[in-house]
Design a protein that fits this description.
- 78% of the residues lie in helices and 0% in strands.
- The chain has one domain: Four Helix Bundle (Hemerythrin (Met), subunit A) (Up-down Bundle), CATH 1.20.120.550.
- The protein is an all-alpha fold.
């Protein structure tokens, strides 16, 4: 049986960072898009895809950072065989973070490529802004997991989700609209 009090306490902890993560992404990114960050001077499909590829090259940095940390930790600690289960807690956390980074990166990268071809030129800078928030969210996730365990991941999850979910949904809507001739 699930401890209802414990669940409510964990939910409260997770929800405690929503007050700053969601407004940062859902209000901050559009504000920067409209008033601060200029649109890139690109127009053709190939240039747009190259732009998305550059964004994705930055978005993959947290994934490679955790991979390098895992490689170095395994090399230096002697935990060379992942199947032997001799990892310490920190290495186990890093392995979970690596897997989550990869899962989130797939959704981000695919939607970035789709949006690069479908967004109006005046709003292509949204991809760089989304990339910056995505990378921030991934590093916050990693840091929070090490600092406070599973509940410490919440701000990073929120930053990542508040970036990636709208990107995926917006890309899907634009793809469907284009497919239906609208």
């Amino acid at each position: 049986m699930v401890d209802a009090t414990g669940v409510r306490q964990r939910q409260g902890k997770i929800a405690s960072s929503i007050w700053w993560t969601l407004p940062l992404v859902l209000l901050g990114v559009p504000a920067l898009d409209l008033w601060v960050v200029p649109a890139p001077a690109i127009d053709g499909t190939a240039e747009r895809l190259a732009y998305a590829a550059r964004c994705n090259a930055v978005a993959v940095v947290p994934y490679f950072a955790v991979c390098v940390k895992i490689m170095l930790t395994r090399f230096l600690s002697g935990a060379h065989d992942p199947l032997s289960h001799v990892e310490d807690h920190s290495l186990k956390v890093d392995c979970r973070v690596m897997q989550n980074h990869l899962e989130q990166l797939v959704a981000f990268a695919l939607s970035a490529f789709a949006l690069a071809t479908l967004l109006p030129r005046a709003h292509l800078q949204l991809l760089w802004l989304a990339t910056a928030v995505f990378v921030l969210g991934r590093f916050v996730y990693w840091w929070g997991y090490h600092r406070e365990g599973t509940l410490g991941r919440a701000p990073g999850v929120q930053l990542t989700a508040a970036t990636t979910i709208p990107m995926v949904l917006f890309a899907a809507v634009l793809v469907l609209r284009a497919a239906l001739g609208g």
